[in-house]
Amino acid sequence: MGCSWFSCHKSGGEPSEVHRELSVTGKVKIYKYKEIRQATNDFDALNKIGEGGFGSVYKGRLKDGKIAAIKVLSAESRQGVKEFLTEINVISEIQHENLVKLYGCCVEGSHRILVYNYMENMSLDMTLLAGGYIKSGIQFDWRTRSRICVGVAKGLAFLHEEVRPHIIHRDIKASNILLDRDLSPKISDFGLARLMPPNMTHVSTRVAGTIGYLAPEYAVRGQVTRKADIYSYGVLLMEIVSARSNKNSRLPQGYQYLLERAWDLYERSQLVDLVDTGLNGVFDAEEACRYLKIGLLCTQDDPKLRPSMSTVVKLLTGEKDVENRRITRPGLISDFMDLKVKGPVEKKTEEVNNRVNNYTNLSSDNASSSTGTRDSSYAYSSGASSSTTAVTTLSSTI
């Protein structure tokens, strides 16, 4: 029986032992580093198609002729060997039409590389949110957008409710939604995913998501449940309908943040004004407004009020009615970033601290409560931010 990669590496084991150990799953192909270099033309900058906190992504052609997206984890990444192997084993077992497929990996020396199937039409942030139908030639008509919204919801519902143990993605955003040649959406980047056994209520970890998509309770307390993913999905849903990013600093004050704008229009019963004008009026107005309301349901300030992703799918497809659901105020990150509050510094600090204390109390209540809906999750602590530190970080980041 083969040893683990870590024990082989530590005792001077040969790469063949790595191959034997990882091949046990039968689904993970082991690529040699030399092959990866050849596939990417020695990691030519012209083949680089993306970069994130965990490393760079290159387009490459493998020996068998397949075009692949090759994710090279950075040396500075906190993701150790054990986490890398966990990611590989988890992803290799997950199969869903709305999730990116893992071909295999490369583990040689200090190199840790994941090889995914390549998506011809890139990501939503590079197409739809960048004026896609103008720059890329992709026609994002209403039917296509609707299919993308439902597809992402189904993929996330699969991760949250059907995979065992459940998976929280932790970084749902436009750049992590890829499109194949038929414009079917695929959720990518499970580098931030954490497994969730059924005996815990939340994950305490360093905040690893993206400003604008972060649920307030996650940004402030560093505590993430499936409800944080649902918040991020709600923001993404509104981005797809409106074809605008969650923040646009070129717009006037009060219009810059998509979620704030959506809430303002909802209160005035004018949500239809948020729909992308690039559709030239060719869309189902009732359905578009329903989608925006679902986005607001997903981003409510109180995590307990956000629907599950399986419920979101039913709301999107009309199996459940959104009209009889009360929608409360969304959780707005700008409340913590001191962007909208006017008046003396003391008053600003007091209001922000009140909001932080609300989340502190909410988190404590959720953790100790034995009734109501509970998220299954897994305690993975790597230095959770305190509420004060988190607010300071958010204020300085924007």
UniProtKB/TrEMBL annotation:
Protein kinase domain mapped to chain residues: 43-332
Pfam families attached to this UniProt entry: Pkinase (PF00069)
Record-linked SUPFAM superfamilies: Protein kinase-like (PK-like) (SSF56112)
Biased composition (Polar residues): 354-375
Binding sites annotated in the UniProt record for ATP: K71
Annotated region described as Disordered, given as residue ranges: 354-384
Keywords on record: ATP-binding, Kinase, Nucleotide-binding, Serine/threonine-protein kinase, Transferase
Entry superkingdom: Eukaryota
Gene Ontology MF term list: ATP binding; protein serine/threonine kinase activity
PANTHER family: CYSTEINE-RICH RECEPTOR-LIKE PROTEIN KINASE 3 (PTHR47973)
Family of the protein in this entry: Belongs to the protein kinase superfamily.
Protein name: Cold-responsive protein kinase 1
Lineage, opening ranks: Eukaryota, Viridiplantae, Streptophyta, Embryophyta, Tracheophyta
